[in-house]
């Protein structure tokens, strides 16, 4: 007797509903990096990101993320040359940039988003679908190099100051500060900013990185992906609020007031800025290193911040027991950026500049093995098809 043929179950046409916010859902495979929240660990291509920030330059880690490996001396030289050449403003954008800087509703991040879009259009960046991997990487290098130049020009023109060209002898982080003030920064300030920037280049499959990948999955160009990513970063739930921890320090004012202020906040149902994290349920590794960096810089604000941190952790463990609330990246980021001379409105744009390395690396990875990202939704409205209301007509 012959066996009955195997019957394949019919493929379901009803999509399954993913958890809200896609929490716990993996939507891609990546070789760029990952976050392990329970361990308090994150990495770039397998290397502990905090170790990279301790021992490497911005350009070395940029090469690692975009190209895939830490560079040897020749490869580093190549990237440095590309990075300096890529700082040149595209032809035809300078007047428009100055107009953007003088818009009545100016915000630094909104202006940067617009300037990135403008520059990508001026450079005529082509759909990634039509480019080779080398061409996608060339666009990535160009946009990473250009973004801080756009930001600093907008910032200075907005303040009524003349823009300052980047010094080609300076690396990414030092040139960043030099374009801000017109002076070569001290090595401590430049290195502190460089370490902050390395720490924030990438952080797993975060919302703005996902946004950049969705846009790239349509075959669109690098400029569109970056413009969308900056838009996603602008939200307060992502990168739009890194100055809030510093605002909290201001509101506390003096060490003696910390205990009472923090207790009142938590008892009143407020969240302490710079504490707690969706993924990290132990020390945020970025906060640990940024604390060290802030200490290295010194200054009165650091001691005060340390006092507030210790008080906040004590208050949180007492009033919110078992919630595993620790210091997050924002707490000492604000202190570091403030100490190196960045104003609060430049915190999120500075984050955007360093994250451009992660975004462009994600774009390159997506483009090299692309499939259109096109999920479904479960329709929960009135049963369809609905008849039009009787007598309803074109008006
Ligand atoms: C980052 C953050 C949004 C993560 O939140 P989450 O994982 O969704 O945590 P939940 O909202 O589930 O909160 C769990 C509990 O901890 C409390 N909690 C979380 N963060 C807190 C904070 N910073 N201060 C006081 N309580 C906090 C919540 O009130 C909640 O308490 P409950 O159980 O009594 O209701 C949250 O910790 C927060 O708002 N922090 C302050 C803002 C901040 O620093 N943002 C930068 C993040 S990098």
In brief:
The protein is mostly helical and 395 residues long. The chain has helices spanning 49-55, 58-67, 73-85, 94-101, 108-122, 133-158, 172-181, 187-199, 207-217, 222-233, 244-252, 258-267, 285-297, 300-319, 329-339, 347-368, and strands at 33-36, 41-44, 47-48.
What is the secondary structure topology, with strand pairs?
Elements: E1 33-36, E2 41-44, E3 47-48, H1 49-55, H2 58-67, H3 73-85, H4 94-101, H5 108-122, H6 133-158, H7 172-181, H8 187-199, H9 207-217, H10 222-233, H11 244-252, H12 258-267, H13 285-297, H14 300-319, H15 329-339, H16 347-368
Antiparallel strand pairs: 1-2, 2-3
Helix pairs in contact: 1-8, 2-16, 3-6, 4-5, 4-6, 5-6, 5-10, 6-7, 6-16, 7-8, 8-13, 8-15, 9-10, 9-16, 10-16, 12-14, 13-15, 14-15
Bound molecules: coenzyme A.
Question: Can you tell me about this structure?
Answer:
The chain is an all-alpha fold and 395 residues long. It has two domains: 43-237 and 357-368, Citrate Synthase, domain 1, CATH 1.10.580; 244-339, Cytochrome p450-Terp, domain 2. The chain is built from 16 helices and three strands. The chain has helices at residues 49-55, 58-67, 73-85, 94-101, 108-122, 133-158, 172-181, 187-199, 207-217, 222-233, 244-252, 258-267, 285-297, 300-319, 329-339, 347-368; strands spanning 33-36, 41-44, 47-48. A three-stranded antiparallel sheet has the order 1-2-3. Helix 2 (58-67) runs parallel beside helix 16 (347-368). The radius of gyration is 24 Å and the shape is globular. It binds coenzyme A. The site of coenzyme A has 16 residues, from helix 15.
